Amino acid sequence: MAPQLDGFFKQVDDLSGHFIDRLGKAVAIPSVSSDAARRPDVVRMAHFLETELKALGAEVELRPLGKQPDNPSLDLPPVVLARYGRDTAKRTILVYGHYDVQPAEKTDGWNTEPFELTVGEDGRMLGRGSTDDKGPVLGWLNAIEAHQKAGVDFPVNLLMCFEGMEEYGSEGLDELIEAEAKNFFKDAEAVCISDNYWLGTEKPCLTYGLRGCNYYAIEVSGPGQDLHSGVFGGTAQEPMTDLSRVLATLVDTDGKIQIPGIAEQVAPVTADEASLYDNISFTMDTLHESLGSTTTIFEDKKSTLMARWRYPSLSIHGVEGAFSAPGAKTVIPAKVIGKFSIRTVPNMEIDKTNALVFQYVKDQFAKLGSKNTVKVSALHTGNWWVASPKHWNFSAAAKAVERVWGVAPDFTREGGSIPVTLTFEQATGKNVLLLPMGSSTDGAHSINEKLDKRNYIEGIKLLGAYLHYVAVEPTQ
Amino acid sequence: MAPQLDGFFKQVDDLSGHFIDRLGKAVAIPSVSSDAARRPDVVRMAHFLETELKALGAEVELRPLGKQPDNPSLDLPPVVLARYGRDTAKRTILVYGHYDVQPAEKTDGWNTEPFELTVGEDGRMLGRGSTDDKGPVLGWLNAIEAHQKAGVDFPVNLLMCFEGMEEYGSEGLDELIEAEAKNFFKDAEAVCISDNYWLGTEKPCLTYGLRGCNYYAIEVSGPGQDLHSGVFGGTAQEPMTDLSRVLATLVDTDGKIQIPGIAEQVAPVTADEASLYDNISFTMDTLHESLGSTTTIFEDKKSTLMARWRYPSLSIHGVEGAFSAPGAKTVIPAKVIGKFSIRTVPNMEIDKTNALVFQYVKDQFAKLGSKNTVKVSALHTGNWWVASPKHWNFSAAAKAVERVWGVAPDFTREGGSIPVTLTFEQATGKNVLLLPMGSSTDGAHSINEKLDKRNYIEGIKLLGAYLHYVAVEPTQ
């Protein structure tokens, strides 16, 4: 039997002004994690959450994470760990969010004060952190409060993990998650992360996959120092010539990776998976608008989405050590470092991919017959993540979406990475669901970041509804 | 009959302390032309020369050049025009030098104060401008003074043109030279520029050729703004991919330019010219030392010098608009501009070379089948220069070198450009000679710039001796 949600929903509507005020209070705390001078505000934001959670009856701990690695005089902000409910008859769900934000200054081009939540007639709620990720974090608190005020029994035991360094590399978080997997998080039966976005603006989605990212550097060096092209042009083999010739062999204009063995690792598309793409709410027009151009590789939606989500891609990011300023400078750079990355997908293996890349770059360089030297290395690697969208965690969320939004969600992947997703999956061994609240136009890291009032209020209902459905969803 | 120079030479030796003091006074004026705050010092340096020249009995004019184009509130420093002698029975020689210098700060890594001439036990005279180009400029003044004090008749009428913006693009100078070609410079029968360096440290040279430089930009653009490689990798054609693929087609590792038609423009090597290379004082070891590596294209002296002086070369300088900092950034740049230049030689024509480059880049880009757009343009062009080393201006200078240094000079070209050389040749229609004073190790634009006392004092003798030989050298 479907959960009875009307009372909860009505209470969310009745409390909507209160919930918007709560978001306003949170946005007013400029918890910019990348700015050392703002660290006290980040800590203040942790205390704000602690106070609000305690007022709702949750057990709360602020966990220190030690010093910031690249600034050892600075304490990392604490992770807020909270538990609401200890009923052994109920399922236990672990949710994650972050309470830090990207930097923002009015002078960056904001139409409103970034740290004042400004609600427009059109329902756009502008403010730094509104959608990334204070709205979703408060969504869980608001869902608890609406249950209490509606007198509806909370359907699960809720474990919460809210961090304050997500916008600065989640320093210290992986270790905490691994340590707490068998402690604070040990009862968790599934994980839900609300820190991404709908594919568009009209239709909710559930995200079951993310690509990984292996980032490479090709360093070519020869001369002992930069040279003048007048004096040495024609005399010395030039590292920049060699690097250009190697970079050119990596990928073609249509994105086909030229490194042998990469394509062979990619999991074949199953019929089940292929069927997920057909009805996804997405148009090439939307893509052209995001790109600001029509220079796409594919002309159709399905090929484009598959290229973005479930096939690897290779991008050349730039060259370090060469002349990069405007104007003309007649330098022969002595050492240049080309940077490129491969977005990885199931079933690519990091080590195998690295080995293929290293060998290919060395082979291509060897073909040049150059006396210069080459080094190729991985600057960082991060694995892909994919969950089964058939898992009860997803099917419960899908039912909640249908109940709140009246439409079946799209099942999507994302081309980028949210590394904490993989960490939670690996540390807890449980299914992880990405359940977005905001829409694709929210501008999370941009000026005029916003969350639509509709997405916030219906999003609170969705988070609550998800907990009701997940509480009763049969395991398969 | 060879000129009688012993009295002049002895006087130079007797006055060497005085001449070093004069250089010290000049070095003490920080006439940095690129620094607007130093402009009064540049003007002060012009007045210093005016005063010294007038004391020697020269007629002097300080010619204003108007406002600095990129800073219209700033007056350009004047050109010092001077004439010494009006004897219609004598030849008239025009000499050029510059009295401005490169920036220098002790904190850049100088061992001494850059604007204090410091004479070491080893004869190294350290100071900004010592070799570039205050030593040579004062060389002409010193030669006049030594003639006067020795009671030796000055062998020519000397026209002098000393500018104060050479290190900042010689703003305004071309127009002045063109205007004065039929006025202040109208009597000039030959031109001598002392603003370059010996090929090595032990043997003087006379320089009869310079390469030109055409500097190109290839701009590839697609998306409306930079993109995230996670979100858009595999979706959009990437400008950086296309640019890398085009850059790779320009030149091979051994410096062979791949653009059809370039090589065909190059003048064939004559037997006369080829013979100039055999005895040149230059070793591959010296080159390896300058390079800081052994990554040369050729293994032998002659091929190397010809590649540097009389064949074109192509260097890729870098990429504007892409990620160029250390570290890893997963950006897909929306617009990238690759910069490269071609060092040009006789008989390459600028317009023809540009046309070949533009067509080739467009053809290579077209082969990619990309929807991105390409623009290729020349950021600047400058012609090559080559004079006949058989001209009486050179043969006189060669005799002067043999008299002062006891050795026949090497006849050299340079791979870089000194644009004023070509301007003087074209404006006056006269033969131009490059007669260097300093050696290859002087570090003109570097920290610890120096001029060896030997090069300065023997250089003063050389400039004077050159004027004696040029006064009597028969025209062919």
TrEMBL record, chains A, B:
Domain Peptidase M20 dimerisation as annotated: residue spans: 210-365
Signal sequence segment: none
CC terms in the record's Gene Ontology section: cytoplasm
Cofactor note: Binds 2 manganese ions per subunit.
Binding-site positions, substrate: 195, 228, 330, 343, 417, 445
Gene Ontology molecular function: identical protein binding; metal ion binding; metallodipeptidase activity; omega peptidase activity
Pfam families assigned to the protein according to its UniProt record, in alphabetical order: M20_dimer (PF07687), Peptidase_M20 (PF01546)
Binding site for Mn(2+) 1: 132, 167, 445
Cofactor(s) listed in the protein's UniProt record: Mn(2+)
Site location (Important for catalytic activity): 228
Entry annotated with the keyword Hydrolase: yes
Residues annotated for Mn(2+) 2 binding in this entry: 98, 132, 195
The keyword rRNA-binding is assigned to this record: no
Gene3D superfamilies to which the protein is assigned, alphabetical: 3.30.70.360, Zn peptidases (3.40.630.10)
Domain of life according to the entry: Eukaryota
Gene Ontology biological process: glutathione catabolic process; proteolysis
Keywords: Hydrolase, Manganese, Metal-binding, Metalloprotease, Protease
Active site (record annotation): 100, 166
PANTHER family in alphabetical order: BETA-ALA-HIS DIPEPTIDASE (PTHR43270), CARNOSINE DIPEPTIDASE 2, ISOFORM A (PTHR43270:SF4)
Entry similarity comment: Belongs to the peptidase M20A family.
Protein name in the entry: Peptidase M20 dimerisation domain-containing protein
